[in-house]
Amino acid sequence: MRLLILTSLASLAAGAAMAAPLSTVGSVEVTISPELQKKAADDLGAKDIDRLAAELRKDVTRELERTGVLAGGRMELVLTDVRPNRPTFCQLSNQPSLSYESFGIGGATIDGQAISVTGEVTPIHFQWYESDIREAWTKSTWSDANYAFDRFAYRYGRGESYAAR
Predict the structure, then answer these.
(1) CA within 13 Å, CB half, 22
(2) Which own/partner pairs from 133-136 qualify as long-range (CB within 8 Å, at least 24 positions apart)?
(3) What is the DSSP string of 24-85?
(4) Residue 70 domain-assigned (yes or no)
(5) What is the pLDDT of residue 131?
(6) Domain for residue 140, yes or no?
(7) 108 and 145 in contact (C-beta within 8 Å)?
(8) Which of 3, 75, 1, 82 is nearest to 43 (CA)?
(9) What domain range is 89 assigned to?
(10) 74-83 and 27-32 as β-strands: parallel, antiparallel, unpaired?
């Protein structure tokens, strides 16, 4: 009887271990460039930029796990530049003449490198900025930057976006 219980428990434990999904990407690191940190402290607001860096990390991790690209490797990304579609809260508080109804063209620039499990380093450069001001009036503060992150993650996850020079 004990043998039956022990083998049942052992098979359950083995099945649970096999069912647990393995992470397909070692790590995704996102840092903020010194120029963007200064711009955040002076104008955009550090909280917004930190939230955008976390969003970029989440989007890239999700896509890499979904597609299996860079399995076991790591990505070191640098958020180089972001532009909001509407004034941030920091900008609104610093410049009373601004209105949340103001709008402009937004987007983001991402640099960095992908390091495969074998140690091969691939440089990354991606930027996307909205080109049509007519599209900006319906968007929220960071819509175009978030779209740029999604677009980068999607394209990199399918092997379409590396160093664009």
Answers:
(1) 7
(2) 133/103, 133/104, 133/105, 136/85, 136/103, 136/104, 136/105, 136/106
(3) SBSEEEEEE-HHHHHHIIIII-HHHHHHHHHHHHHHHHHHHHHH-TTBT-EEEEEEEEEE-S
(4) yes
(5) 87
(6) yes
(7) yes
(8) 82
(9) 24-157
(10) parallel
Q: What is the pLDDT along the chain (165 residues), one digit of tens a residue?
A: 554 454 554 555 555 444 444 455 678 999 999 999 999 998 898 999 999 999 999 999 999 888 888 888 889 999 999 999 888 888 888 888 888 878 888 999 999 999 988 889 999 999 999 888 887 767 788 889 999 999 999 998 887 755 443
Q: Are 59 and 100 in contact (CB under 8 A)?
A: no
> How far apart are the two ends of the chain, measured CA to CA in Å?
69
- The number of distinct structural domains making up the chain is 1
Domain CATH code at residue 46: 3.30.160
Written as one letter, the residue type at 13 is A
Torsion of CA 45, 51, 56, 59, to 10 degrees: -150
Structure tokens at 151: 């677009």
Does 12 fall in a domain?
no
Residue 163 lies in a domain: no
